[in-house]
């Protein structure tokens, strides 16, 4: 693909103690695309995502976002939405209140935008139930709303459709394709080959912390 990549990983490796977790990862990812990451449990998808969003640092190599190097020019990508494992939502607050607390960190969106994001993932923004009463699927939807509410340029989602019923999966697929059409750079890890193939422009296959295959999907939903 021509043009400057939005997110680049250059020979990235990660070692924790003696264990080699990621080895020589190269990525060149663009805006307006969805990238799917597939691999067995423990193949390194989550660790790679942590690294790309600045939560951990590479042992070797570098990650650049929009031309800036993580850990040198910037600590975190300037505009990123992340869903990795279970977000630390507070049990005693509603979904809206949880997102409002998080929105107060950056202060770039108002209540209306929070409610709109909650609605986009198929939840009721005015639901008075506390987070502890949410089903697993509702928690997952709220996690996605949290990741997209500030309209970040880079969206990193680890298993976004986990725990969702088939309606939920369809809703989230549509949300992700709309975000792609808006020019976001979207990374998704999933075990579901069919879902990943449907959404993605390119697939990265991971095995033992390495990218063992990388291919573009023809005739995707773009
Ligand atoms: N904090 C840690 N310290 C040391 N090793 C870790 C740590 N976290 C994960 N690992 C190891 O890193 C490897 C990659 O794990 P990772 O969670 O990235 O895999 P994954 O592809 O996301 O798996 P899954 O599909 O189960 O989510 C595994 O071998 C795991 O045991």
TrEMBL record:
It comes from the Bacteria. InterPro entries: AAA+_ATPase, ABC_transporter-like_ATP-bd, ABC_transporter-like_CS, P-loop_NTPase. Residues 7-222 form the ABC transporter domain. The keyword Transmembrane does not apply. Coiled coil: none annotated. Keywords: ATP-binding, Nucleotide-binding, Transport. Pfam families: ABC_tran. The keyword Transport applies. GO terms for molecular function: ATP binding; ATP hydrolysis activity. Belongs to the ABC transporter superfamily. This is ABC-2 type transport system ATP-binding protein.
